[in-house]
Design goal:
By secondary structure, this protein is α/β, with parallel strands linked by helices. It has ten helices and six strands. The mean pLDDT is about 90.
Length: about 200
Amino acid sequence: MIRILLAEDMHMIRGALAALLGLEADMEVVAEVDRGDAVVSAALAHRPTVAVLDLEMPGADGLSAARDLSVALPDCRVMILTGLSRPEALRSALAARVGGFMLKSAPSDRLAAAIRRVAAGEHVIDPALAVAALTAEESPLTPRETDVLRLAATGAELGHIARELHLTQGTVRNYLGAAVTKLDARNRLDAVRIAREQGWLG
């Protein structure tokens, strides 16, 4: 029996996934959580075979939860589900040694088959996500420019970004200016939009 932990913050989607997977004779949903920072404690309590994690969750995103889970419970395999085709997220998932990466829009029979393969130790990547990752442009931003732009995307003020990253406000301004120039953006907001659409903010 494949024991499954579901982590999805949208109640309706989580319920639908649990119901669909519960119909599979060889699968049992043993735990459900709605926050990324609740994944490890639930996994330690219920010892799932596979953790199916939403990419975007409050508390901690799916990739952070996957990394924490690999330390706390190395035998638990991880599949990430996403509603967005973000090449950078797929690359990050592979770096985090995630076993599967699928779109939420995948048919339920394909999802169940993918979970079986991940439970067996295989890697499963949604073909549409693989193509997007292979054809996507590499980010022209440096890691520091990406950090600054990611914080700017949350609406953080210059001073807050500077404190958060232990930089001076002038340095933050320089990084933002460089990002705007590299992305051929009109302004900071436009740079955030471009980077988000390309999946470069992680």
